Amino acid sequence: MANHKSAKKRIRQTARKNAANSYYHKTARNAVKNLRSVTDKKEALKLLPSLESMLDKLTKKNIIHKNKSANLKSKLAKHVNSL
Fold first, then answer.
1. Averaged in consecutive runs of 10 residues, what is the pLDDT profile of the chain (83 residues)?
2. Structural domain boundaries of the chain?
3. Other C-beta atoms within 10 Å of 46: how many?
4. For residue 33, which of 79, 68, 65 has the smallest C-alpha distance?
5. Which of 2, 26, 41, 72 could bridge to 7 as Cys pair (CB 3.0-4.6 Å)?
6. Across the chain, which distance is largest between two alpha carbons, in Å?
7. Cα–Cα distance between 69 and 65 in angstroms, integer?
């Protein structure tokens, strides 16, 4: 276990950040799942920009990798266009 004050503080900070990051990551995964389940093209076109924005923000905060974000956006755009 941690012996120094700074190490204990670092453990607390890491726990807080992990909780926040996993919340944002889970929210994004749910949004992707919701977009994939939509069958109406008009509704999907409404959801796509907000989802792309969310993925960009997660990439900026280093929660997901930039290539993963790009791949998701590409696949979702293909999916929406195929509806």
1. 88 95 95 94 93 96 95 95 91
2. 41-83
3. 12
4. 79
5. 2
6. 58
7. 6
